């Protein structure tokens, strides 16, 4: 028996990485009985007599998991948002940040296509960078041909399992391919074998890039807050958490309550008014969410 990490799941097979070798495995039948499905990212105990004839025996407890994309044990999320084409969308970025924070996964932000901006637009992106860094997030302003920003991104990837999030067209594929040109070859081969277009890979796979593992995923197909509860939302805004002990009421939702430290911070300018407005939109969305049965 050995312990490895699932780096790909496809057509009922699980590909387990162990000491530099990948073993093709099936899941034991008892997983189905327990209604447990192995996920990419799972640490598993497996037995393999040959490289293409293995069985997964058990799955270690997960530290986190996503449903869409189906992946477990993620260390960080690289959230890619473009400065232009499509235009920078702070509301969408904050939505991604909440989804990632809710899973207790550390995000870092890459604003792509900086080379396509004029001076005024560049200044605006630099101001956003400063705002998010003050909250505590790492932010990289990136252009694909910019070696310095690529080096910074690679430093973040080293030694960690990273999932990439971002709307379509923001340059996720270009970013990864510029970091590691082998990835585009792999992605093409997989896509062709599935009979799909170049960038429409439907399964999740972990690639070894920059001494870390990066998930090439079909993306976050759902940007709904799903099971996120009202009292969890404030915990997804680090700048609120930093001052919430100053609120008069415990469990303050920072909305209509008096003597709220978050609202005071917005008035004083120490908390972004725009971020707070996004928070109120998300709060309203969760409050008015239709119950699921």
From TrEMBL:
UniProt keywords, alphabetically: Cytoplasm, GTP-binding, Hydrolase, Metal-binding, Nucleotide-binding, Ribosome biogenesis, RNA-binding, rRNA-binding, Zinc
Co-factor note (free text): Binds 1 zinc ion per subunit.
Top-level taxon of the source organism: Bacteria
MF terms (GO), sorted A to Z: GTP binding; GTPase activity; metal ion binding; rRNA binding
Gene Ontology CC entries for this record: cytoplasm
A single BP term in Gene Ontology: ribosomal small subunit biogenesis
The EC number(s) this enzyme carries: 3.6.1.-
Keyword Hydrolase: yes
Signal peptide annotation: none
Chain positions recorded as Zn(2+) binding sites: 247, 252, 254, 260
Functional description taken from the UniProt entry: One of several proteins that assist in the late maturation steps of the functional core of the 30S ribosomal subunit. Helps release RbfA from mature subunits. May play a role in the assembly of ribosomal proteins into the subunit. Circularly permuted GTPase that catalyzes slow GTP hydrolysis, GTPase activity is stimulated by the 30S ribosomal subunit.
Name used for this protein in its record: Small ribosomal subunit biogenesis GTPase RsgA
Organism listed in the record: Halobacillus yeomjeoni
């Amino acid at each position: 028996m050995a312990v490895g990490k699932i780096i790909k799941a496809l057509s009922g097979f699980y590909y387990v990485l162990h000491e530099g070798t990948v073993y093709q495995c099936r899941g034991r039948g008892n997983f189905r009985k327990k209604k447990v499905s192995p996920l990419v990212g799972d640490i598993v105990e497996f037995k393999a007599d040959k490289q293409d004839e293995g069985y997964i025996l058990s799955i270690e407890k997960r530290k986190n998991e996503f449903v869409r994309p189906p992946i477990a044990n993620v260390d960080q999320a690289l959230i890619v948002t473009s400065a232009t084409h499509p235009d920078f969308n702070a509301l969408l970025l904050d939505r991604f940040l909440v989804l990632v924070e809710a899973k207790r996964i550390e995000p870092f932000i890459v604003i792509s296509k900086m080379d396509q901006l004029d001076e005024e637009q560049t200044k605006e992106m630099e101001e956003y960078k400063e705002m998010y860094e003050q909250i505590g997030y790492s932010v990289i302003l990136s252009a694909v041909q910019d070696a310095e920003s690529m080096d910074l991104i690679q430093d973040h990837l080293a030694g960690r399992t990273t999932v990439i999030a971002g709307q379509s067209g923001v340059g996720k594929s270009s970013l990864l391919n510029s970091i590691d040109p082998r990835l585009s070859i792999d992605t093409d081969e997989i896509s062709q074998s599935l009979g799909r277009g170049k960038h429409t890979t439907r399964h999740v796979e972990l690639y070894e890039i920059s001494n870390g593992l990066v998930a090439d995923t079909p993306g976050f197909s759902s940007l709904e807050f799903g099971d996120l509860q009202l009292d969890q939302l404030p915990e997804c805004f680090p700048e609120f958490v930093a001052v919430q002990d100053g609120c008069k009421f415990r469990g303050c939702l920072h909305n209509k309550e008096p003597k709220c430290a978050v609202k005071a911070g917005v008035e004083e300018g120490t908390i972004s008014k725009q971020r707070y407005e996004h928070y109120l939109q998300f709060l309203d969305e969760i409050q008015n969410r239709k119950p699921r049965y």
